[in-house]
Amino acid sequence: MKEVTRKVRYELFQFYLQECCPPTEDELAKLSGLGSCEIPSILRKPEEEHRIVLYKHESCAPTPMAMAHLFPHLPIPFIVSEGERSWCAPGLAAMLAPDKAIISVGSGSMAQEVQVVVQGDELKVIYLHRELSTSDCCAHFSVPPSTWWRDVRFVCGTIQLFKSKQGAQKWPQKRGFHTGEILSLETAWSLSKAWYHNKHQYDYDRKSAADVTELYRSLGMTVTSGSLDMAQSARKELPSNRSSQRSGQSMEDQLLALKVTCGQHILHDDEWSCDQGRECHGLNMTED
């Protein structure tokens, strides 16, 4: 990475951490000691490398940053909090480790919220005033890893948390999504820590293919050639059958996001239902 690009990337992440929102071009230029006119061309390189996502088509946003992976600009209905600060950044808990961080998520129609509490190597999931087994809980990613960077914001916004693998297997076809990757919550957290813990640091560099291979194998994940090259994988096609199982694929990046897309869910006899039917895209915690 060129030194000027590294400097801009570093200042971008530091601004997000301190201000809990993305900088404008002028703010990023001032922090980096550059002219505002230099920022757009500098940002294009990390976007090509799938480090950030820029707004397109004359966006009305005051910032060029649609996403600085792992920070999305558009609000999503979960909060990662640490002390008095809070962010909409699903993988941030790993970056804040070993400090305690709480991921809180809910909707206006839900009397209770889900809390994922992380501190060091300890992970807890609290739902409806009871603690769920982290060994049973799992995360479903609705897009296979080989196509994540075709629309990374969609990927991050549709990750779902389940209390069992069986629940995760039922969800995609029920809600009209592709079946992608199912990881245990413990594996997802281990992957998140390995991937994000130092991403805010100045000397951060992306992992090599060999590093990724070793990481996946250490977590018991399957290594595929497509999962090791983000630039190449971004050009691959989505699966044609949304109900096909893709459990043999691995992910190259991890965001433990909790997403609510409908405020009309009700719980009846341990089954979630919604009057929007197939128009609804699910909630953050899906019951079996």
UniProtKB/TrEMBL annotation:
Ranges annotated as biased composition (Polar residues): 240-250
Question: Domain of life here?
Answer: Eukaryota
Example GO molecular function term?
A: alkylmercury lyase activity
What SUPFAM superfamilies does the annotation carry?
Answer: NosL/MerB-like
What Pfam families does this protein's entry cite? MerB (PF03243)
List every stretch annotated Disordered. 230-250
- Protein name, please? Uncharacterized protein
User: What organism does the UniProt record list as the source?
Assistant: Trichophyton rubrum
Q: What is the lineage of its organism?
A: Eukaryota, Fungi, Dikarya, Ascomycota, Pezizomycotina
